[in-house]
């Protein structure tokens, strides 16, 4: 069975006001002390966020348990530092982000200016194991049309600098300012994939392979396909659903490759339309159906994704839990709807943040 690992980025906020707090150094030090030097937490581009990564897991129950455990640990360490953590993909409150002190982050700030300065966004990255780079690139070529559906299911960033953006995932619009971000053309082979990566790095615009910000890519650190398209989810159950669907997509694509089925040559320009639509309305309106690239109700498109990976999920015994989790999202909505409902009930973005921090803490 393919293993799955998750990286989640969390927002550090004031427990009372909801304002982002530049306390990552203090929180990381406390987390390391609590873990006796073996912490899973890392810094990110801005001092108002931190990241954790799970172990590769074969069972989704184990992945779910670990995600909840590290969210709780992050909350404990943040509380010791006088703050809280919130699984929000953007800050609802106005913020002037501060770049971290790492030399790499300082280079990004100098190179990319306001794009880096404003990039206080929190994503969720899902790693799924592959047997080789050749298999991995075959997967990348075949999952492209389905990635906007994962974005819609994760949408959790309706607010930016104190106002409603009218998008469910505004994080993805901000993230798209990086020069290497977004959907990509078909590669056809691992050799051509690596040629393109070398060409991009060779331009001098990017610092290194770590700045290949495709919506999905071969990890430069692990033998995995890394899905980078999603917002961090407010509900950890949604993170597990994303991981389940991602593993299903990888296995389904690998089987199609081995059977000799070619990938769908959807143009990048059309994929950008699909990604924009997913960011705009999330699961609340219409999405472009990956098989036709025509608008259909988001719930129907999500069910089509589940059907697409159904055989793979049957074999991994994930189909029942995935169906239940998807129905839950379709009923209660994503984090974007939850945030807007909290604002409607309180008329206060501060309440939105503090309540989301409480949900993150569990």
TrEMBL record:
<protein>
    <recommendedName>
        <fullName>Putative glutamate--cysteine ligase 2</fullName>
        <ecNumber>6.3.2.2</ecNumber>
    </recommendedName>
</protein>
<dbReference type="InterPro" id="IPR006336">
    <property type="entry name" value="GCS2"/>
</dbReference>
<keyword id="KW-0067">ATP-binding</keyword>
<dbReference type="InterPro" id="IPR014746">
    <property type="entry name" value="Gln_synth/guanido_kin_cat_dom"/>
</dbReference>
<keyword id="KW-0547">Nucleotide-binding</keyword>
<keyword id="KW-0436">Ligase</keyword>
<dbReference type="GO" id="GO:0016874">
    <property type="term" value="F:ligase activity"/>
</dbReference>
<comment type="similarity">
    <text>Belongs to the glutamate--cysteine ligase type 2 family. YbdK subfamily.</text>
</comment>
<dbReference type="Pfam" id="PF04107">
    <property type="entry name" value="GCS2"/>
</dbReference>
<dbReference type="InterPro" id="IPR011793">
    <property type="entry name" value="YbdK"/>
</dbReference>
<dbReference type="InterPro" id="IPR050141">
    <property type="entry name" value="GCL_type2/YbdK_subfam"/>
</dbReference>
<comment type="function">
    <text>ATP-dependent carboxylate-amine ligase which exhibits weak glutamate--cysteine ligase activity.</text>
</comment>
